[in-house]
Amino acid sequence: MKKVHNFTAGPCILPQQAIDNAIEALKDFKGTGVPVISISHRTKEWESVMDECRTLWRELLNIPEDYEILFLGGGASMGFLYVAMNFLENKAAYLETGVWAKKALKEAKGLGSAYAVASSADTVFNYIPKDYEIPADVDYFHITTNNTIYGTEIHEDMDSPVPLIADMSSDIMSRPVDVSKYAMIYGGAQKNVGPAGVTFFIVKKDLLGKVSRYIPTMLDLRTHIDGASMFNTPPVFSIFVMNETLKWLKGIGGVEAIHKINREKAQLLYAEIDRNPLFKGTAAVEDRSIMNVCFVMAEGYESLQDEFMAFAKERGMTGIKGHRSVGGFRASIYNACPKESVEALVACMQEFEQLHK
Ligand SMILES: *Cc1c(COP(=O)(O)O)cnc(C)c1O
Question: What is this structure's pTM?
Answer without folding.
Answer: 0.98
